Amino acid sequence: MNWWSAFTIGLLSGGIISLLAARLFQEENDNGLAEPVQGKNGSVMFKAFQHKVSQGPEIVAIGGGTGLSTLLTGLKSYTRNITAIVTVTDEGGSSGRLRGEWGVLPPGDVRNCMVALAENDSALNRILSFRFDRGELKGHSLGNLILLATTEMTGDFRKAVEELNNLLAIRGKVIPVTTESVTLCATTSRGDVLKGELEISRQGSEIESAWIEPSDASAVPEAILAIENADIVVLGPGSLFTSILPNLMLNEVSEALKRSSAPKVYITNLMTQPGETDNMDIMDHVRWISRTSGSVPDYVIANEGSVPSELLEIYLAAGAEPLFLEEEQKRSLALMGTRVILADLINVTAGSVRHNSQKVAETLIRIAREEKDASRWKN
Questions:
Q1: Is the pLDDT assigned to residue 38 strictly greater than 80?
Q2: DSSP letters of 17-78?
Q3: What is the DSSP string of 84-152?
Q4: Which of these, 70, 212, 219, lies nearest to 158 by C-alpha position?
Q5: CA 140 to CA 128: how far, in whole Å?
Q6: What is the predicted pLDDT for the residue at 37?
Q7: How far apart are the C-alpha atoms of 112 and 168, rounded to whole Å?
Q8: 375 lies in a domain?
Q9: What's the N-to-C CA distance of the chain in angstroms?
Q10: Strand order across the 183-188 sheet
Q11: pLDDT tens across 66-108, in order?
């Protein structure tokens, strides 16, 4: 990397983070999201809200990509006791370039989760998601560069994430599942060996086995502690092979899930993912999760709402199909001891189908409360 890129990184590490914090503090005050300088009623209401979310359940969300950040956006309205455990196998875009050039763990998914958990996610999103459109920095997002700069300053990606967790005062915390450089690997039904997210995301439906290298990579201790103390553990939504399973492939994570008495909830995707989950149904997803983690989900939350016809045509043309639970699949899940929750979870945003984060969050909070009440009756 030449002097210009290095100079830009230096500027980011030296000044932009401080300006970002000041900017967010001002915007939160202006929008009533932080405690107002004046206005007794606003201050009381904010404190009441803060107290409410501070008493919420301990929720651990495991995954990556857009699915995890969408989930976190809804959850933060109900609890600030959230731990997002994020995969670090991303090889594409800005994250992949930084991983290759600087040897840093891919920061993109971590950045998105921080934005989702921020008090003022819209203002933070505009800043951290700013993407350069020319020069050597073309394609890089400002948030990724800030994480890179903080990693260079602290000498450790985990410490960099922790610093930004504190600086941005997010509702919860974001933790990379490991600080080791791991590679996602798989074999196909034809006997081909695939290495890396990009290859696997194009041949997912033909995969017979998958693992990470090195196989003995260690999980971040805080991630394991969070699972052990969780009231509920959530898997998904997100890409099966490239967002969810890589986390479960760490032995310490799968063992912690098996030890945990907290209910494990799998939130299914709304659509199949072209290349990665072609021709796979929800039961195929559940079987892969159970096989990789050694734990059968206690709950499966699936969508029963319809995709708007004009969008459905676009998705079908791209090779994506809606995922619904058929009656036979419901019976199979029941035999596994898994409870099924169906709801209309469709939310159309900017011409794309996404999960309704508020509905999903409400469902998870209800599960956590019911499980807590049931535990009290048993005791």
A1: no
A2: HHHHHHHHHHHHHHTTSS--SS-HHHHHHHHHHHHHHHTS--EEEEE-HHHHHHHHHHHTTT
A3: EEE-----SHHHHHHHHHH-PPP-HHHHHHHHHHSTTHHHHHHHHT-B--SGGGTT-BHHHHHHHHHHH
A4: 219
A5: 11
A6: 44
A7: 13
A8: yes
A9: 61
A10: 193-195, 183-188, 207-213
A11: 999 999 999 999 999 999 999 999 877 788 788 888 888 989 8
Range of the domain at 323: 53-87+219-379
Does a structural domain hold residue 340?
Answer: yes
Q: Does residue 152 share a domain with residue 22?
A: yes
Q: How many domains does the chain have?
A: 2
What's the CA gap between 53 and 51, in Å, rounded? 6
Q: Which two tokens stand for residue 221?
A: 């201790």
Burial of 96 (0-12, 13-18, 19+ CB in 10 A): middle
- Give the chain's radius of gyration (CA, Å): 21
Cβ neighbours around 107 below 10 Å, total:
30
**Which is nearest to 231 in space by CA: 362, 375, 367, 368?**
368
Pair 127, 8 in one domain: yes
CA-based nearest residue to 298, from 248, 258, 247, 325 = 258
Q: Are residues 65 and 121 in the same domain?
A: no
**Chain-wide mean pLDDT for the chain?**
87
Do residues 80 and 102 both lie within one domain?
no
The total of other beta-carbon atoms located within 10 Å of residue 134's CB is 7
| Arithmetic mean of pLDDT, 126-131 | 82
Burial class (CB in 10 A: 0-12, 13-18, 19+), 25: middle
Q: pTM value?
A: 0.86
Residue 132 and residue 155 share a domain: yes
Give me the residue label for tokens 């919860």.
172
